[in-house]
Automatic annotation (TrEMBL):
It is a multi-pass membrane protein. Belongs to the DoxX family. It comes from Bacteroides luti. The keyword Nucleotidyltransferase does not apply. Keywords: Cell membrane, Membrane, Transmembrane, Transmembrane helix. This is Putative oxidoreductase. It holds the Pfam family DoxX.
Length: 152
C-alpha cells in the first residue's frame, strides 16, 4: 500500500503540473487517435500495426506503442496512473526519436518540406514534459488525487 501512495503522491495544488499534464496529453492524444482509431488521417489500429511490422517492429511493441500514445495520453489528461502513463509516453517518444531515424534529421521539425524528415524538437518537448510529470506527479484536478485521498 505504501508503494501505491508514493506512486500517486503529488502536490495536489500544483498548477504547473496540471498545465504540463494537459499540454502533454493534448499534444500526444491526436497521434494516438491516428494510430488507434484512424482519426486525423491515421491508419487505425490494424493499419498502424501493419506499417510498424513492415518496418521490422515486433507485434507486441507495436501494440504497446499504440496503447502508450492513445491510452497513455487519455490517462495523462485525466490524471489516472499519471506517472506510469507519462513514463510510457516518454519512453515511446524517446524510442521514436532514436529508432525512427529522427535523430538523423537535425533539430527542427520539417515545417517547409526542405529536409529529409522531422527533427528532434517535438520529441524533446514531449519527453521533457513526460519527465517533469514522472518526477512531480499529476498536480491539481487528477484522478490520482482522488485515489490518494481514499487510501489515507
Amino acid at each position: 500500500m505504501n508503494a501505491i501512495k508514493k506512486f500517486l503522491a503529488t502536490d495536489q495544488q500544483s498548477w504547473s503540473l496540471l498545465v504540463a499534464r494537459l499540454a502533454l496529453g493534448l499534444v500526444v492524444l491526436p497521434h494516438g487517435a491516428q494510430k488507434a482509431l484512424g482519426l486525423f488521417g491515421g491508419y487505425g489500429f490494424e493499419g498502424t500495426l501493419g506499417a510498424f511490422q513492415s518496418m521490422g517492429m515486433p507485434l507486441i511493441i507495436g501494440v504497446l506503442v499504440i496503447l502508450a500514445e492513445f491510452v497513455g495520453s487519455l490517462g495523462i489528461l485525466v490524471g489516472a496512473g499519471t506517472r506510469f502513463m507519462a513514463f510510457s509516453v516518454g519512453l515511446t517518444m524517446a524510442g521514436a526519436a532514436v529508432l525512427g531515424g529522427h535523430i538523423n534529421n537535425g533539430f527542427f521539425m520539417n515545417w517547409f518540406g526542405q529536409q529529409k524528415g522531422e527533427g528532434l524538437e517535438y520529441f524533446i518537448l514531449v519527453v521533457g514534459l513526460a519527465i517533469a510529470i514522472l518526477i512531480g506527479g499529476a498536480g491539481r484536478y487528477a484522478v490520482d488525487n482522488l485515489i490518494s485521498k481514499k487510501l489515507k
